[in-house]
Amino acid sequence: MALLVLLLFCQVSILQVYAAPFNNAFKHLKSAPKFWHISDLHLDPTYHVTEDHTKVCFSSKGIPALDPGVFGDFLSFSYMKQADLQPDCFVILLDSLPHVPKEELSTDVVINVIANMTHTIRQFFPQLPVYPALGNHDYWPQDQLPASANAIYDAVAKLWSPWLNPEAVATLQKGGFYSLVIKPGLRLVSLNTNLYYSPNQVTVNMTDPAGQFQWLQGTLELSRQKMEMVSLCNCSRSLPYAINTTAVRESYNEQLVKIFRNYSDVVQGQFYGHTHRDRIMVLLDHQGKPVNSIFVTPAVTPIKSLLEPFSNNPGVRAYLYHPEDYALLDIWQFYLNLTEANLEQRSKWKLEYIMTEAFDIDDIQPHSLHELALRFEQPQSKVFDKYFNNFMVSYKLNLTCEGSCKTIQVCALHFLDQEIYSQCIAKADR
């Protein structure tokens, strides 16, 4: 079973995985504790190389693939294992299923693919604690994750139970979310933000789907009383995918922002996926002070809509943190140049950037990211150009982001409230 998944990932059975080179500039951080973070695996067993680029896989929906090759999907787990960063744990935002019509899937198919993925991860990292979060494609029909117990929540709770405790398994079965202490003084909270996702018709008009808001506030309050720090991992955030349109419904977004502001002294960092792009955001309090760092990891799989001029290369990343207070120190972002891999017939993963080195910042704490975001706002900002290249995971160096493109990016960095974000967009349009 695990071998089958490995073959589907890479389409070929014998490949050499090359280690990414490290610079001497960050040797002082090499001993810092780390954890892996990956997202959006989207296993599509229909992928194959063919002369008809409209029929490469169901996920393409008939849109011609630009340059399909044997590395249409990747040996990311092999690289992560070979890199041997000695991580403490592995956070994975699943989105296991492919982007295909609902007629091609079923509840049983979803459960089988997640089971396949789970067994493969356990095979590659048998001793590593793994903390998964559900994506909007980890259900059938996609996006319609319910606010009550169901066959898929029950199945994933059983599949992931070796990594969790009984209390976490119970809430995962009930609503697709969980919490557990992963180190002394450090709690991980895995939210099911799919309940708040705009396309989810099941939760329309619900005030608190699955009681997750109440549960989250209770969990964070208890962590505050116990003097715990909290790491939040989720699928989607209130990320704009069009002007004045967010992935999360506005009422739910406002509740989340309110909770995160109220408990910004407890939340150590927020980690998301879903968009396939590399992004940062900074939560500001009502006085404009930066209080939370938010990160969106790029995906293992590339995606491109018909209207977009860009896609993304595959990426995986490691976060570095302080061993005593768990403060976030840095990001090491790795990527695979798909064009190069398909031309050379080998998967040569590389270090794309080190966050502190690439942007000349001290760490990835809220104040550092806030100052960086202010630099992005400057006209013809070379720093923003570098950020946008990373946003696409070095997909094409000659693509630029100006005008409304830059406005959407910059406004989304600082303004998580829908109203203030809309005001930022409107101000830039004047």
From TrEMBL:
Taxonomy, superkingdom: Eukaryota
UniProt xrefs under Pfam families: ASMase_C, Metallophos
Keywords associated with the record: Disulfide bond, Glycoprotein, Hydrolase, Metal-binding, Secreted, Signal, Zinc
SUPFAM superfamilies with a match to the protein in the record: Metallo-dependent phosphatases
Cofactor: Zn(2+)
Annotated GO biological process: sphingomyelin catabolic process
Signal peptide (residue range): 1-19
All copies of domain Sphingomyelin phosphodiesterase C-terminal, residue ranges: 289-427
Entries under InterPro entries matching the protein: ASM-like_Pdiesterase_prd, ASM_C, ASMase/PPN1_MPP, Calcineurin-like_PHP, Metallo-depent_PP-like
GO molecular function ontology, one term from the record: sphingomyelin phosphodiesterase activity
Primary site of residence: secreted
Protein name, UniProt field: Sphingomyelin phosphodiesterase acid like 3A
Protein source organism: Sinocyclocheilus rhinocerous
Lineage: Eukaryota, Metazoa, Chordata, Craniata, Vertebrata
